[in-house]
């Protein structure tokens, strides 16, 4: 639903505003011209324009320290449930989410309070280590409780993520927050000078001889069949396929606008791409089977997932193509997100060619705020490999990370077709 993203009226600033395609307060009419263009009142603008306008609004009026109180939310905890075994020796612990309570969440100037049927949790912002969202579930990473999963059953989870982050910015002021997950990182949290520790010149993990299959044979069968079908259905245009090397390791770094990005790119690549996929996608048996045969592996992106990093190293060490979405998540409004610091640090440490990829048209296909697919022309532009200077993690400085991030972001943006 579009109001999961546009959760305030961009004209009058009201919450709970959308009724029968118009604002219940200022009567401005809303119309989805396309999935990228929205008309509100008589003004047609990109959805990113309206979303940024909403983000610029001040917090709701604070009454007795309370910023916002939710409707019904469901609280879940994380449970480890067995081992995921992929191809080429990839292994990971599998995690599921178990509902433990239901109630309401209150956002205050100083923290978060959950009151449920069986108990309550009170968190100050000094205890909050990170904040992010998956679908309509806001994930709060805490010192005492670990990750807490709040499913917003009757309202926009995106609204809650944005407002929590806005209050966190105020709490940490004057320190600027650079990232909200997997940890809240502030401007002064990175070293200006290299550490005296040399670090590993080459990242290595133990070889696993016990798992002989290097990849699923299913891809050899499915790709030739699926490729012409996908090309016809989605009108896929592919440029720069020659930039993916025929042999040897490399890292493919596309922008991320749609759930289908990895599927489309994976089927049209002349080599298999081993993508990280968020752990929650492995909950369903059929999806888990498909992702395993597609050569993906799980990552708990709301925490520092050491096992996912080890699997990424294993993919490169085995001479494969690793796929990383350096934004860390799908864009909500179609504009590119800042690149994740952890992704850039891994690229610098792996000392492997980095191939920027720009995907355009896929946002119209299936943006993050909807679960429906609408046919659209998709263009995949694969750039020439970038060879960043090899810098072991202890030797990396903020300047190194910023420089590589700026270059990669610019390259991807140019391939998409813009200069933002």
Number of helix segments? 9
- Broad shape: globular
Average per-residue pLDDT, rounded, comes to 91
Low-pLDDT regions: none
> What percent of residues adopt helix (DSSP H or I)?
10-25%
Q: State the total count of DSSP E strands.
A: 22
Q: Structural class from helices and strands? A: alpha+beta
Measured between the Cα atoms of the first and last residue, the distance is 27 Å
Largest sheet: 8 strands, antiparallel
DSSP strand content: 25-35%
Radius of gyration: 22 Å
Oligomer: single chain
Describe the model.
The relative contact order is 0.13. The chain starts with 17 loop residues before the first strand and ends with a helix. The model has no long low-confidence stretch (mean pLDDT 91). Strands 6, 7, 8, 9, 10, 11, 12 and 13 form an eight-stranded antiparallel beta sheet that branches. Strands 16-22-21-17-20-18-19 form a seven-stranded mixed beta sheet, sandwiched between helices. It has a three-stranded antiparallel beta sheet with strand order 3-4-5. With 420 residues, the chain is α+β, with helices and mostly antiparallel strands. It contains nine helices and 22 strands. The protein has helices at 47-55, 157-172, 218-234, 261-268, 285-293, 306-317, 341-350, 362-365, 398-416; strands at residues 18-19, 22-23, 30-32, 37-40, 43-46, 66-69, 73-85, 91-108, 111-116, 120-124, 128-134, 137-142, 146-152, 177-179, 185-186, 236-239, 250-254, 273-278, 297-299, 321-323, 354-360, 378-382. The longest helix has 19 residues, at 398-416. The chain is globular. β9 and β10 (120-124) form a beta hairpin.
């Amino acid at each position: 639903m579009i109001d999961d993203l546009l959760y305030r009226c961009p004209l009058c600033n009201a919450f709970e505003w959308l009724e029968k395609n118009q604002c219940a307060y200022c009567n401005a009419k809303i119309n989805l011209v396309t999935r990228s263009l929205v008309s509100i009142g008589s003004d047609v603008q990109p959805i990113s324009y309206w979303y940024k306008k909403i983000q610029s609004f001040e917090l709701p009026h604070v009454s007795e320290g309370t910023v916002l109180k939710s409707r019904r939310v469901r609280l879940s905890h994380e449970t480890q449930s067995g081992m995921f075994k992929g191809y080429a020796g990839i292994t990971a612990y599998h995690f599921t989410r178990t509902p433990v309570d239901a109630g309401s969440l209150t956002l205050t100037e100083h923290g978060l309070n959950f009151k449920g049927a069986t108990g309550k949790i009170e968190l100050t912002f000094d205890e909050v280590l990170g904040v992010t969202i998956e679908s309509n579930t806001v994930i709060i990473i805490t010192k005492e409780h670990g990750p807490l999963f709040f499913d917003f059953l009757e309202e926009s989870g995106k609204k809650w993520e944005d407002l929590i982050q806005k209050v966190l910015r105020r709490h940490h002021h004057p320190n600027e927050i650079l990232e909200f997950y997997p940890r809240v990182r502030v401007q002064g949290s990175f070293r200006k000078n290299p550490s005296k520790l040399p670090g590993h010149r080459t990242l290595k993990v133990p070889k696993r001889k016990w798992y002989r299959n290097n990849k699923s044979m299913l891809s050899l069968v499915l790709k030739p069949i699926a490729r012409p079908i996908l090309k016809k259905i989605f009108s896929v245009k592919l440029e720069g396929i020659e930039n993916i090397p025929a042999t040897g390791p490399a890292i493919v770094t596309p922008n991320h606008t749609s759930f289908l990005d990895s599927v489309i790119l994976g089927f049209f690549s002349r080599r298999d791409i081993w993508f990280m996929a968020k752990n929650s996608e492995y909950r369903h048996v059929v999806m888990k089977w498909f992702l395993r045969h597609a050569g993906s592996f799980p990552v708990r992106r709301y925490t520092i997932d050491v096992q996912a990093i080890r699997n990424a190293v294993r993919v490169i060490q085995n001479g494969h193509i690793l796929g990383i979405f350096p934004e860390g998540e799908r864009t909500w409004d179609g504009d590119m997100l800042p690149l994740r610091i952890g992704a850039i640090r891994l690229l610098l440490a792996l000392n492997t060619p980095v191939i920027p990829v720009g995907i355009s048209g896929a946002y119209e296909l299936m943006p993050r705020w909807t679960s429906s697919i609408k046919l659209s022309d998709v263009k995949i532009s694969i750039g020439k490999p970038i060879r960043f200077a090899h810098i072991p993690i202890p030797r990396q400085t903020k300047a190194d990370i910023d420089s590589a991030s700026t270059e990669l972001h610019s390259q991807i943006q140019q391939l998409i077709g813009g200069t933002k």
